[in-house]
Specification:
The chain is mainly α and 738 residues long. Helix content is 67%, strand content 6%. Strand 7, helix 23 (406-418) and strand 8 (430-432) form a beta-alpha-beta unit. It is rod-shaped and about 200 Å long. Keywords: Membrane, Transmembrane, Transmembrane helix. The chain crosses the membrane at residues 624-644, 656-674.
Length: 738
Amino acid sequence: MTVGPAAVRVNAVLSAFRDNESSDVIDALCYFYVPILDKLHGKPITASLLAKAAKLVYGWNLTESVGHVFVERLAAQGHLVEEKKNGQTVFVAQPSSELAANVESSIQESFDEVTELFREFGLVSGDLIYRQLTREQLGDLLVRFLISLDAYSNNEISASLRAGEIASGERSALQELTNDVSVLSQSETHVCARFVQWLSKEQPELAEKLSLFVAAGLLAELVEDFRKPSALETKSETIFFLDGPMLLGLVGTSGAALQEEARTIVDALKSIGCRVQVFSESCREAERVLRSYLKASPSDRYGRTHTAVLHGEVDRAYVQIVAADIEAAAEKYGVSVRDYSLDAYPNDHKYFDAERNTDVYSFLSWEGSLAREHDAFAVTAIMRMRHGKHKNDPLQNSHVFISSNEKLVRKAREYCLHSQLVRETQCGPVVDTRDLATIAWLRTGFENSEKLPTSHMLAQCERVLRVRKDVIENARQQVAKFTPEKVEQFELLLQDNRAVSYLMDTARGSSASFDPERDQELLDGMLDAAIKVVRDETDAKLSQKDKKIRQLRAENKKRQQETQTEYEARLEEEARKTADVEARLAEMERLRGEDAKRLASVSLRHEIVMQDGIEYANKWIIRYQVLCAAVFAAAGILAAFGVFWDPLSLPPMVDWGSKLVAAIGVVFTVLALLGRPVPGLWQLIERRGEKWYANYCVKKGVPATEVRERLSVGKRRLILADPDMLTSEASSSDGKSV
């Protein structure tokens, strides 16, 4: 029988279930009956047989009434054929072709990869029994574990088969199925759970693919409703009460996987308006669990909290803080604490009186008076709070108690049914965590809770792999025959995570005694596992140091490269700047040469103009000198006439001219006697010549300053001063001033 390939079709089932408005849970789960009908082809199929076959193969709890619906659907699809035998109508199983052949290739490829990794997994490759299984058989084993994740053993149906309580026709068919599909043993469950846990850490993307098979199992929880998740509740006012173990999972003392599952469920329920609370009695129950763990000696600790501490997922100090104030921890994670007393609200006692409370306490019949008292309290409180109103759907009831104790869920429902407090189709006072997970995943928004199957899968693996007291006690009995030193060594090893994991893996989760011939191997294996922890930690530290060294070297090399690059960039920048400066200097030199040429040209032009100006001025000076000489000669002649001739006989002009010459002569004589400069004709003509020179040069474009600087006066004429001489005179004058 090939269950694995049929389970691979889950992806197609869920896709059709989401998209097809006419599909319901029954249509989806019909796919999983294909391998069963292939095995039983030609045999009559009844509703009871289908329900029991689902229980045997998948661990699904289906009633006979649901089986009748499956018969109708399978017959409509052609997998069952109606025939007449002995005057009665029976349905005969038919071999069928492959269903849902349109499975995504990526899903099939992922499953093949997971199966290959499973075959190479240490607990499989190192075990002779598992090494003999084919690849297909290993895949079948893994898928059956995932589909029936919460049904670790079907002892109930197996016991019924052995006791002959099942009708002969059904017994032969179920026994035929049992020959090929055996109920998962504790060893198989442990190996599968360990592998799934390892896969989620090493390759989480493949682990998410496995959650599709978990989804199929969750989907089966809706089979009683025959409804599609998208058509279910989007708003609810139900108040859910958590039991102690789920509260501890929510606050994180039971490990990361159980906390993730609890938080996902609580958040999903709150998203549709549900309230999540916890009884103060449940807080006391959780507190007793934690205090029991804290008081126990290290070698006597076990359970979920101890497993989480060993794995390093929770610190023991945090466990102490939670144990000191469990109510504060609950409030921190959004769960309010409800103080409820069975003596309060007398009007509610008629729905579940004190006598029934005592009766249900006796009916539970398991060890531990405190646990029985708490569970009886929870059943009584919920039944009273409902006021006799019970609905089929947990989301339509006013109050529901959530428990991870499957026995409590079953016993509470059996008691209420037996006492006719609820009907067969109605929801009991206590709902299992699996049912709550189904509600959170499917009934609070199919698309918005897709991570629930993964978190539920990992949480269930964590429950399977918890440290069990019976395994430790069996190992302690085996080691007791060794020397006291080795016994003490064993007790110390029980405090190490790897050593305890090796112990649990060796036992494969079974409570059976260890092989007495391998006692020393057991102890040595635990020691090697513990040493491996130290070795791995040392290797990890060395690897971390090597990584840091490599990182520092890389950073140093990078800095050197950056420095070299920056230095080269600066050199290039300096070279570029130098080239720019040299280019500018060359340009300036060129401009300077051009300016010098222009200056020389201008200077030459100015020199020519000034030379022409000198010649022009001297020409006019000579003319004036000649004119003045003639005037003075005439004046002298007139003065001679005045001296030698009678003034009366001279014309008045001559007379006055002689007198003027005489007066000028007297003035010049007095000035000479006084030592004063005697103005002469040359000075007058010089001043006028300078004016002529300046006006001429300025009109020709020569600056007036240069004109004045270059002018020099020689004897009876104007001359141009040498420029070099002017420069030396200016320098000497500056030196004197300094």
